[in-house]
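Journal club prep, notes for RB
We'll compare a predicted complex against what the paper describes. Inputs for the D-xylitol-5-phosphate case:
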Amino acid sequence: MSVKMVAPSILSADFANLEKEVKAIAAAGADWAHVDVMDGHFVPNLTIGIPVVKALKKVSPIPLDVHLMITAPEKYIAEFIKAGADYVTIHVEATRDPASVLRQITALGAKAGITLRPGTPVESVIPLLNLCDLVLVMTVEPGFGGQSFMHDQIAKISRLRHEIIKQSLNCLIEVDGGINADTAKLCHEADVFVAGSYVFSQDYAKAISSLR
Ligand code: DX5
Ligand code: ZN
């Protein structure tokens, strides 16, 4: 079985102390820091953007896993990568030509990820998997931390695992939304677990190790 990775979502961190928080999750065993970028258009919430990625990059001991919940990500990916994003994940619904945006991310030297809303069929990302380092299955409606896990999304993980094996692809499966020790077990076919409220509401090291 593959080694499971954990990417705490800093959306649930103390924004007044982000340097301390990213160092604390790294010291607690986190593999990546998951950074949720929202534009108030693709999702009904506003969070953080390029200057925060740039500031975090200077102090983060671990890679930055940037989840772009923004319309027309092609306008901003060069800036996010210049700011230090290691993984850049775009929504398949957010752009007219996701394949070209994924190629652009790779050409700019970052790892490319694709994701989809819970209501979007998994078939929409399957033809893109060969352009991706990562595919993210959303198990909540994107926009907010602290929502309940949607069990009906688990089948997407199995379908993606099947395709990745069938096509011999080198693509990680990440899951995001409502993840805790119980729901992570249900997603045993995923490689990377994003968790926000679960990690930041308790002892970070205990929470992170309980997800593996
Ligand atoms: C939701 C974000 C998630 C969120 C997860 O739109 O993509 O990364 O921070 O938060 P929890 O783990 O609390 O569901
Ligand atoms: Zn996210």
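Talking point for the session: The domain at 5-211 is CATH 3.20.20.70 (TIM Barrel).
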